[in-house]
């Protein structure tokens, strides 16, 4: 009963365009996400690049909202789209190493990126 009341007072909204009735990212905003293309090696031996979406438009907006506005509703969406890509690439390499941000930045944001 409380959840129903909260749903009326605070309905789910797209975190990017605020369209009511959609949690995280609505289908209309998702259409603006451009696939990143294949993973590539750069000039340096450790310059491997891979992504899910190009960092532009709504995809860039989603990253900035999660990092700087703390729109945590986007975290689940991003994990959902990143997990299959990580699984796809993990079989190609021996090790994946996360690089933490500086402790001051982490303190400002409240989480590690």
Give a quick precis of the structure.
The protein has 113 residues and is mainly α.
Note down, in words, how this protein is organized.
With 113 residues, this protein is mainly alpha-helical. The protein has one domain. Helix content is 43%, strand content 4%. The protein is built from 5 helices and 2 strands. It has helices at 2-9, 27-30, 57-68, 73-90, 103-109, and strands at 40-41, 48-49. A two-stranded antiparallel ribbon has the order 1-2. Strand 1 (40-41) and strand 2 (48-49) form a beta hairpin. The chain is globular. The termini are far apart. The model has no long low-confidence stretch (mean pLDDT 82).
Q: What's the total helix number?
A: 5
What Rg, in angstroms, do the CA atoms define? 17 Å
Distance between the termini: 36 Å
User: Mean pLDDT, as a whole number?
Assistant: 82
**Net shape:** globular
Ranges with pLDDT <50 over ≥5 residues?
none
Main sheet specs: 2 strands, antiparallel
Strand runs, count: 2
Please provide the ordered H/E string of secondary-structure elements.
HHEEHHH
The quaternary organization reads as single chain
Write the topology of this structure.
Elements lengths: L1 H8 L17 H4 L9 E2 L6 E2 L7 H12 L4 H18 L12 H7 L4
Task: Describe this protein with a few key phrases.
113 residues, mainly alpha, 2 strands, globular
């Amino acid at each position: 009963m409380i959840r129903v009341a909260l749903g009326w007072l605070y309905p789910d909204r797209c975190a990017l365009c605020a369209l009511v009735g959609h949690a995280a990212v609505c289908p209309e905003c998702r259409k603006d996400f451009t696939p990143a293309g294949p993973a590539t090696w750069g000039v340096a031996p450790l310059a491997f690049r891979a992504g899910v979406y190009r960092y532009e438009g709504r995809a860039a907006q989603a990253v900035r909202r999660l990092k700087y506005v703390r729109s945590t509703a986007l975290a689940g969406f991003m994990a959902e789209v990143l997990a299959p890509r990580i699984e796809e690439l993990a079989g190609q390499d021996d090790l994946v190493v996360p690089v933490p941000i500086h402790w001051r930045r982490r303190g400002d944001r409240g989480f590690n990126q």
